[in-house]
Amino acid sequence: MDEETGRLSRSEARGVRYARELEGHLGWLDSFTGAALGVLAVASGIYTYLGVSSLLDDTGAMSFFAAIAYSVAVSVGIFVFWSYMMRLLPAVRSAAARMGLFLSMIAGSLAIVAMSSWLNAAALAGAAAVEQHMATTVQTYQSALETAHATAVASQSLELDVARVRQSFEDLSEQEATGQLSGFAGEGAVFRLLRQKSDELAALQIQIAEQEPLVDRAFSEGNAILSRMRALTVEPGAVEPRSVLFSEEAVRLAGVITQLRQLSVAPLVVRAANDLSRSVVLPELDGSTITIQEGQSATMNSVLTVLGQRAETLRQAAEQVIALPPPPDTTYTPISTADAVILYAANFVPSWAGAIAIDLLPAVLVFIVAITQAAIRSARERAATEDLLTLAELRAAVRALREVEDSLDRDGPAPKAETEGRRLAPVEGGRQSAP
């Protein structure tokens, strides 16, 4: 401003016009900002009500009024909080005040997310989150079923090892019958020992073979249950009744998996392999001469050595099956929509973003108003107060001045010097008021 003439410079005049233009925009926007905040608060309250309703087990009148009361409290809290922020944060000028209100806004935003946004997310994506939980459970159960079946099939493959060992003892017994082992033909003590172990292995082979149909039946039943569980996951309709049926099917499938684990014959083969070499009933030597008996004894010792080796091989094969990783322990636990949304939050980022945005969108408006107010103050800071008055404000000031003068005239004539001094007193900015 030119101090001698009291006139604004061209840049200052542009700044004043710019500030008045921004004030006009803010005035127009302020006319419906309160209504917009109310709509956002009500919308958040509605979704909060839906989220709270999904958490309450009781469906009576008390639960209804409790959900209504909570949602109304959330709506009022959101409206009041953002109204405070939108009015106060742009108006303060000191850095300490701005930082304090900014921290208050962060604390309030966290409180809104804690009391409302997660419930909004539950209302937006709660059913889909529960279905996601069911689908994940199906995958876990399928993995457990396949692992249990693979272990059972691997144990059934031990039948080939048992058959091979049994066949080797049968071949040795035939060789002994023709005299190729001990050198003395006939079905003597060595022959009976070999037949004894061959019969034990044949009985074990029959037991293993009898388990195979049971394994196939259990695996087929498990797959059928999994199919029903998948259908319940994607079936249209309310998720709560489907979750109940899903739980029942999960219990049945857990029983099938346990049955498959029990059908594994690997522990049975391990016990049989231990008994094969340790529980040996040696037949009496029946050779007619000492020479024949000595030959039978030497052959029997060789057979026992081979028996121990074959039993060890069979035991190691069974222990390899036992060492296979067991199926994971899986238990389906029904969860609420709110818990499901939190548990599978990474899968529902858009829903979480929408739930949080509807509550925290006014924060953007607060920053917009704060930036605009700062621009207005910056544009006006170089102009004097009287230069910022509009024509309407000048007319109001003149009218008020005249009313004051009229009031003084009615109270009585003022001293001449005082009157002249008042009329000739200079106003701020270097100009004198008109007489």
Automatic annotation (TrEMBL):
Signal peptide: none annotated. The keyword Transmembrane applies. It comes from the Bacteria. Keywords: Membrane, Transmembrane, Transmembrane helix. The keyword Membrane applies. Residues 404-435 are annotated as: Disordered. The chain crosses the membrane at residues 27-50, 62-84, 96-119, 352-372. Residues 404-425 have a biased composition (Basic and acidic residues). This is DUF4407 domain-containing protein. It comes from Histidinibacterium lentulum.
